[in-house]
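Marked as duplicate of an earlier ticket. Keeping the data here for the record.
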Amino acid sequence: MDTRGLIDAIVQQTTVLVAQLATAAGIRAPLAHVADEVFLHLATELEQQGVRKKVAADMFGLALRSYQKKVRRLVESKTSRDQTLWEAVLGHVGAKGPIARSALLHDFRADDEATVAAIVGDLVGSGLVTASDDDDPVFTIVRDAAVDPSAVEVLATKLWHTLDVEPCT
């Protein structure tokens, strides 16, 4: 069995599905968080399968220290336990409504300021959050319009058909 070829084919089909879902019914769902989520889920799964951190880091093409820092950054916010820092910042902006950068950084003062700022930048860049053009920008979460359920159902049917009729080779 060509394991690498199979992994590549699965990743390709998955990215096609994600792209179709992200544009279903004319919406443009933000995807900035996808790479970090995939990395974190893969790292967690490798660890659960008994792969040592040094080996996992090598599998991702990272030095052990870089791998550990990335996992630590993605795993949990010091401010909001049981959430990744990314999830905590997004949830906080959504819960607080419009919130100034200074207030957001103050609320997440237990976390690394540069990391929080980078996450907010990613959220703005991905379209999940908007920022005002002030000296102390105000961040507001973007609420998506409801997705047409029939469009999602059509995509799901198409996915199952693709997986059933056109297996990865």
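See parent ticket for discussion. Residues 77-143 form a domain with the Arc Repressor Mutant, subunit A fold (CATH 1.10.10.10).
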